[in-house]
Amino acid sequence: MINRCWFYGLLTVVLVCGCSQTAKEANMEGKIMESETYLVELKTSMGNIVLELNTKAAPVTVKNFLEYVEAGFYDGTIFHRVWPGFMIQGGGLTADMEKKQTREPIINEANNGLGNVRGTISMARQNDPDSATCQFFINHVDNKPLDYVNASNPGYAVFGKVIEGMDTVDAIASVKRTTRRSKKGTVMQNVPVKPILIKSAKVVSK
């Protein structure tokens, strides 16, 4: 059994994005955010996951995520942190544990009425609430301590949910994990022994 006090005390360590460099912004104005919901399919090496994104509740976050999707940014990245009974996190590192360049961070939209319940997708970030860039996580269980409370406890922004493929999420959460060191020397825990690749991320419905 995991000691829950210790478990949730590690959130600022576990849910950091680690993507701080900027890259040239994709010219996506007028091409996205035309609907209240979008469907995005993640094709992974362990199966497919279909996400329904909520533009009404999290417009900035969804726009940011869709721009990365449309640019092909997530293709070839991995789920690099997997914690059964908590979440699976990915979207920013390649299979050799290299961090990809990102755009500027976005504001934290955690105060949008959406909770971090099983199957929802949220943005990973650093200690600064407005530091999310590319990395995201899918909640494996209900994670109420990740929800917005107030300015002192800003939470993690939910911007959609899994509508197909929770069996894939469960399978990913169950893989064997290890500790690995990135090429820059960062020690990372709960890394799948066998890389779990995001082969592609595509908008499948608008």
Keywords summarizing the entry:
two-stranded antiparallel sheet, 206 residues, disordered N terminus, alpha+beta, globular, 10 strands, eight-stranded antiparallel β-barrel, Cyclophilin, 4 helices
Structure, described:
With 206 residues, the chain is an alpha+beta fold. The chain has one domain (31-205): Cyclophilin-like (Cyclophilin), CATH 2.40.100.10. The chain has helices spanning 4-9, 11-14, 59-70, 166-173; strands at 37-44, 47-54, 77-83, 87-94, 120-123, 136-139, 158-164, 177-181, 187-192, 197-205. The strands form two sheets. It has an eight-stranded antiparallel β-barrel. A two-stranded antiparallel ribbon has the order 8-9. It is globular, with a radius of gyration of 16 Å. Mean pLDDT is 87; it is low at 1-10 and 18-31.
Write the layout of secondary structure elements.
Elements: H1 4-9, H2 11-14, E1 37-44, E2 47-54, H3 59-70, E3 77-83, E4 87-94, E5 120-123, E6 136-139, E7 158-164, H4 166-173, E8 177-181, E9 187-192, E10 197-205
Antiparallel strand pairs: 1-2, 1-10, 2-7, 3-4, 3-10, 4-6, 5-6, 5-7, 8-9
